[in-house]
Amino acid sequence: MTETIWFVNLKLVYNKIFVNYNYNMPIEIKKQLMPLNRKDDLQGQMRELLKIHYGFKDYRPGQAEVINNILAGKSTVVIMPTGGGKSLCYQLPALILEGITMVISPLIALMKDQVDSLERIGIPATFINSSLTLAECYDRLEKVKNGRFKLLYIAPERFYNNEFKNALAGIKVSLFAIDEAHCISQWGHDFRPSYLKLKEIIKFAGQPPVMALTATATPEVRVDIIKQLDLENPEIVITGFSRPNLQFGVIQADEGRKPEYVMDAISSAPGQSGIIYVGTRARADELLSYLLQNNIEAVSYHAGMEAEDRRWVQENFMNGKANVIVATNAFGLGIDKKDIRFVIHYDMPGTVEAYYQEAGRAGRDGRPSFCLMLYNSRDRYLQEFFIKGDNPPPEVILKIYETLLNYNSDKVLITYAELGEMITESMPDMAIGTALKFLEREGYILRSREKAGSAYLKFNSDFDAIVNSLGPRAKIQIEILNKLNGKFFSELKNGWDINFEEAAEIINVKKDSIIRLVRKLSDEGLVEYRPPFRGTEINILKRAELENVDIDFTAHKNKLKKAYEKLDQIEEYVYNFGCRQKYILNYFGEKDVENCGKCDSCLTKNGYLRKHEPPRKKILSRWHRGAAGKKTGNFAMSENLAPKAKLSTKLTQLDTLELYNNGLSIDKIAEQRGLKESTISAHLGYLIEKGLIKNIDKLVAPKQQNIIIKAIKKAGREKLTPIKEELGDKASWDEIRYVVAKMKAK
Ligand SMILES: [Zn+2]
Q1: Region 432-451: what's the mean pLDDT?
Q2: Ligand 1 centroid vs 610 CA: distance in angstroms?
């Protein structure tokens, strides 16, 4: 734990400024001491804190205004470009506001880093998201109540849980900050239904001042944010979107030549950090292997990767071990790397907002950097495909609802692909997902987290035959097979609901390696294998006859229209003959903008670069002269590709045990952990067998236990099926499992 380590360094500084004040004191004493020194000079106090914690002498544009609004208790919408210093706007007042500043952020993966870096500069902060156990959540809330922290980061999905919401009662929220506030608007490019809950939470928290922050909001998104959050006459602070150190350019390129342009651009900024955005995961992989073949030390990042790998890639890019990252738009939200010298768009993105946000990750340190877009007229088709996936027609939405209603239960566990097959239209998974999102927003359904079920695995041949089939060279695979067989001999022989995550943890081998091995054996018919189920649990909240479904599709249709308009506008950016920076700023509503004087249009007058395909190197190097800095050390790829996965040695069953001991029911545990109930039951069986749960009376009534024990005596306890056959409907599978486990434990 990093608790209060920062305090040691800051104690002295604090004592100098605020007499006898430090964060280690009980909250009551703090409250009394806090205004001692600068009671009458709040502004002065804020500036001292700015200096102590951030090392800045002065605010950046807009920050002072926002902070003053908040200190005056006024809700404020903050629109600042990426890297403009948004987060300081709520972090700094948080230090002197009495209660807690609650920060809502969708960037779960980054919360820990954000909190760590706050702790490093002496600001006590913590976070709550799905990576924590229930017990940890409550522990942190308790500390918040005790005044241990000034900032609390929360993922908005948490508010779906009423228990959690209620646990917030009694916490004094002085400021409610909403990061990435455009996520609340369907006009934005990243709508998230969970954000619609925030209005209710703000009320629940007693209507503290709200700060809604975003880097990309067109005038209409701005209006929507205010409306959706129910803010009454909020202040709006917009700071300039102009990024004078960025140099923009577009090259029209044949598909086949794009990789060469990328190589040229990279070689013009040797040893520097850069991001290359691509339109799809497949293209990320493609371009990555091209770059590696050309000795560029690159890594790639997309949402299809395992979380562990994504984290590793991100870390290596952040700490400069990998210079170039090839990524889909899944990468970058909240990334705070200041020295990115270039951002290349390998494919045209879908909107100017997306483009400017992504390109704007270059040059946050204020040093010259370049933003290049490679454009091919076919790029538009890819974006149209996304738009279609993002905007399924109303008939499809209703059809999906109807399909769900056909289930008797209000809980439906299903994959998007299955749902897609059930409705007759051929719809990509993405459109199904969007349709569900839509129904969710309209209050007809609620989606829980994705659920993953076990896979099934059984040896068809005897172990030696399987080993022999792999051949003597497959040493690593044989080793994995040996480990599996060593731990799970009888399971593999009799058929096993394998959970790859758990198995990987137990035998300490990467999950993917096990899966690859199993697939190979399955292809050769040596094992019986059924891949794991991956689906979504859908809760039907409202049952209505189709003709009574009260959904206004006008907004939906407008959104589709809007998406095409936005696509036209980014394409216009490509074909635009004027200054590129100016085009973008005009798009965001800024008027009276001067030409930047350094984009390709400004430099070459009327887009020389675009119209001809001149000798590339020459033009590129002339164009972003100054963008490239000094060469830095090389990235030793081989070293850094060393194993990075730190597998947790804690058994997943122990997490279940903790929740079980806290008195949670099986379905609650399953919900909390995002696992299937059957998985939790299996965990309980394991825990009973290992003697970690001694008394099973709560799970199976004592009388029932006796009935089952009798059946076990008849049928033996090696297999559950004969016992079940013996008992028929008199006992459930789970009950039998628990009693058998109990007997084995003795
Ligand atoms: Zn220009």
Answers
A1: 81
A2: 14
246-252 and 340-345 as β-strands: parallel, antiparallel, unpaired?
Answer: unpaired
Q: Is the dihedral of CA 441, 445, 446, 450 positive or negative?
A: negative
Ligand 1 centroid to Cα of residue 566, in Å, is 21
Distance 477 CA to ligand 1 centre (A): 57
Q: 185-222 burial by CB neighbour count: b if 16+ within 10 A, else e?
A: bbbbbbbbbbbbbbbebbeebeebbbbbbbbbbbeebb
* Torsion sign (Cα): 176, 182, 186, 192: negative
439 near 400, Cβ under 8 Å? yes
C-alpha 61 – ligand 1 centre gap (Å)? 23
Rounded CA separation 646/633 (Å): 27
pLDDT given at position 88: 94
Q: Strand (E) positions, 302-390?
A: 324-327, 340-345, 369-375
pLDDT tens digits along 288-316: 999 999 989 899 998 888 878 888 898 88
Q: How far is the C-alpha of 132 from the C-alpha of 157, rounded, in Å?
A: 13
The DSSP code sequence of 380-426 is: HHHHHHHHHHHS--HHHHHHHHHHHHTSSSSEEEE-HHHHHHHSSS-
Tell how far the Cα of 155 is from the centroid of ligand 1, in angstroms.
39
Other C-beta atoms lying within 10 Å of the C-beta of residue 6: 18
Position 629 scores a pLDDT of: 30
The larger pLDDT score, comparing residue 307 to residue 87, is at: 87
| Separation of CA 369 and ligand 1 centre (Å) | 14
- Which residues, in sequence order, are CB contacts of 250 under 8 Å at separation 6+? 372, 373, 374, 375, 573, 574, 580, 600, 607, 609, 610
CB atoms near residue 81 (< 10 Å): 20
pTM: 0.55
Q: In angstroms, rounded to a whole number, what is the distance separating the alpha carbons of residues 198 and 88?
A: 21
Q: Where are the beta strands (DSSP E) in 314-382?
A: 324-327, 340-345, 369-375
CB atoms within 5 A of ion ligand 1 belong to 579, 595-596, 599, 602
Q: Determine the Cα–Cα distance for residues 215 and 384; give it in Å rounded to an integer.
A: 25
**346: burial class by Cβ within 10 Å (0-12, 13-18, 19+)?**
buried
What is the sign, positive or negative, of the torsion defined by CA atoms of 686, 690, 693, 695? positive
Q: Nearest-CA neighbor of 49 among 88, 86, 82?
A: 88
- What pLDDT was estimated at residue 303? 82
CA distance 274 to 345: 11
Share of the chain above pLDDT 90, in %: 25
Q: What is the pLDDT averaged over residues 249-273?
A: 88
pLDDT at 563 over 80: yes
pLDDT digits (tens, 9 = 90+) for 327-375: 998 888 667 788 999 999 999 999 998 899 899 899 988 888 999 999 9
Amino acid making up residue 400? I
**Higher pLDDT residue, 554 or 654?**
554
